Fold this sequence. Notes:
The structure is a single chain. The chain contains 13 helices and eight strands. By secondary structure, the protein is α+β, with helices and mostly antiparallel strands. Strands 3, 4, 5, 6, 7 and 8 form a six-stranded antiparallel sheet that branches. Strands 1-2 form a two-stranded antiparallel sheet. Helix 9 packs across helix 13 and helix 10 (241-252) packs across helix 11 (259-268). The two termini are 41 Å apart. The relative contact order is 0.19.
Amino acid sequence: MIWPLVLLLLGCEKEAMEIRRSPGTETDVSDDSTTTRLLTNATYELAAGYTYDPTLQMGAAVGYQIFNIQGLDKAQRRLGSSYIWDDSDAGTTQEVVTAHTQEDLRTVLQLSGSLGLSLYGTNVTVSGGFTKEDLESRTKEYGLMRLNTTCFSRDIQYGNVVADFENHPALDREVFTPVFAEERRVLQAYNSNNDYQGLRNKVHNFLLRWGCCFVSHSVMGCSLYYEVSVDKSVLNKEVTIDAALLASASKVLSAGGSIEMDNIYEKIENHYEYQLEARGGDVQLISLIHTGGALTNEMFLAWSKSLHTCEGQLADNAVLVSVHLVSMAQLFTDKVSNEMQRQIDNWPNY
């Protein structure tokens, strides 16, 4: 359910959905400029086609580029396939996650809906010198709600790319960056021999270098994070951490709530703490969140529509608000793919 306040959001204005380019660059559409599916050149902040570390903050987690964005577009036009697609998405989404520890919240959020990374997320070591068992035995439960207003997305259909390698073996050098294409070829060669120990070591070194996953889909816009910690002493079957999160958020976001939510709030009042963080857009429009004030519908709507635009560019104050992560094993086949997924599932042991 999206809160009534969020339903008022209109997303990015139509004029915001234009072309985003890095300074001094041009999108290469020399093959057929009328059918390109790219709205912008490849840049680090767009994330799609890059490696990603789900244990870090969004944005800082973006790593090495592995897909050649322009190469994907040229190849799909030449072959009549679908490899990459940019879209001027406008809309609002709400995501809610809960966890036993504060450190797990953002990792769980980033891994939601991801492919082949569920076990990797549970094996992440938290910071601060505590084990997960230590943190889970503490006296609080945690919840996080993220509200995203989106205005741009990029999607890489990596499954189509890998499937087409069989009929177009040289395609990898076109759609991947040179170093990644070469390292992938070296690994793929192990599918035709029985050197399991060699494959095991090569895969381990590959994962140390490139990481366990990449971004197949990324979304730009502005985002609001509402994070709450609630004393376990007031939680039970009726007053769950999910219900406590929504009940407390209804007060801070001025969204209003049902009688049931009001009753839950009465039970957790004075037993919870929250943090509210805005990213992207003109955050000055909702700066009162740092003084303990509640956000009105009008303030929230103004902020969600504050993505600055200029001629020929899309929202220069948009930030990365959502990613879909995929196991690196999905870019390989047969024995190599199986061994890579096995190591990812058991990381860091192999």
